[in-house]
Amino acid sequence: MTLFMHPAHKLFTRIFVLPAPLSMVSSFTSSLQRLFSFRYLLMGLVYTFVFHAFWLVSREFETVTATVSWYLPAGIRLAAFLVCPYRAWPALVISEKLTFFTLFSPGAALDESAFMSGSFGWLIAHSVLSPAAVMVCVWLFRKYNRRPFFNNVNSVLSFLLSGVALSALLGLTFLGRRAMENTEFREILWPVWFDFILGDFVGILVLTPIVIVLLQSKLTATRSKLLLLLALLWVTTLFSVILSFRSGFDFTYQLKYIAILPALFFAYRFGMHGGALATLLIGLTAFVASLHSNESPLAHQFYIVGMSITVLILGAAVEQSQQMTNQLLAANKNMEEKNRLLQEAINDIQALSNQLVATQEAERKRLSRDLHDDFGHRIVDLQLQLGLVASRMPAQNNALSTITCKLDELYSAMKQSIGRLRPAGIDNLPLEHVLRNNDTLKSMQRAGVHCQLHSQGTPPSLSDEVRINVYRIIQEALANIAKHADATEVEISITYAAEAIHIEIADNGIGLIQPQAKPSSLGLISMRERARFIGAQLTFDSGQQQGTRVIIDLPLTVRPK
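RE: above sequence
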């Protein structure tokens, strides 16, 4: 990208760049082209064709002049505005109105003086107010409800409210013209307006749900085939009823009520798809029943409205319940996966902990052996050499005696260190002998804690890992007593049974109810890890000022993990 513009390029820009007004016109033209693209125009043509085709069908249900009891185009209109993008709305409105003026103007194919009568100004106002009411109602519905529609109860209730409001607004704009021009019509305006609302609302209930559901979501192949089969069975039954009319059998009264259970089954079994299809079939059922019925159109209308609202809400509730179940299953599956990963992490940590314990004991064993074999032998050798020097140099006996005493102290300290690293006899002596022979109990005595050790039974053969870890647990328990329990007596009992070893360490101290002995302390964690490593159960029984009991239960069939 250059920083300076060539003069020729500046001249070209001045000549060929459009001035601001022309640029605005060009932008407006391009917007119109996008707004009335071939795709949107095709949508408008299909919509207006279907709309007026259903208008011709609806004329068969006319009860009040220029109104119908089942105005099916209302359902087509609402469905079209719900499924089409906002940019397609102008094409829908213009296509509908152009077709309206073309078909219903005087002398046209469908000359309807009731539609075209009145002042030209009012006709234009009606042509603007009607689509404005439709677009406002649909825009509000789409603003607060997301696709797919009818998959939850709130969406269905919003749809019903929008349908009633739209029917009322359209009826008011259509009948208001006649009321303003005809004073006699004002007296019957409200009853006719109610019939108009009911007729539009019936058309919306019968057609809009099935169109929306078919366009926005699909069933699985198996469920769709089953639903289609049941719908064909329903339609076949209606044809059979029509044939029975011709044969002299009248099932009009029973027909509408027999259809209640299948309609509820459709909604319950297939959710919003079944509910939407049931509304269409309910409308067909009411139409068949009205062919040979003396009931007023109002009764059929209320039947359609009541049944349609019921199955739509039931279908939406079933759909919403299924969605919540699926979400719960997905959440449970996700939680199970996280639990599995967490368990794997715990297993890895436990394996690492076990490896650390085993490595620690192996390193202690190696260090104790090295100290004993290397430094121990060196100290003994020094003591022997000093003895020989003392026999040859009597004059230096005092100095040599001091050195010999220091070596004895060093050797004793080394033996204590070796005992802490790897207690003597741990590989071949029973636990009680190891405890007595090592410095563990002696250190408790030096701390002013009287220790008693009891054992019962015959000691079994234990692996080196089990021996050293049981010893370390006892050692850690005694260390905690010496540091925190403020105890004066400790009793250790070891019971050897055929299937398990039971060990209890009880003191008369203040118990574990203190901050430094909380369960998350390092000493208790080490005891638990060692117990888990050898498959033992470690239990703490403590109360304030009641002492503490540490219980170790080791099954003899369990081996270190």
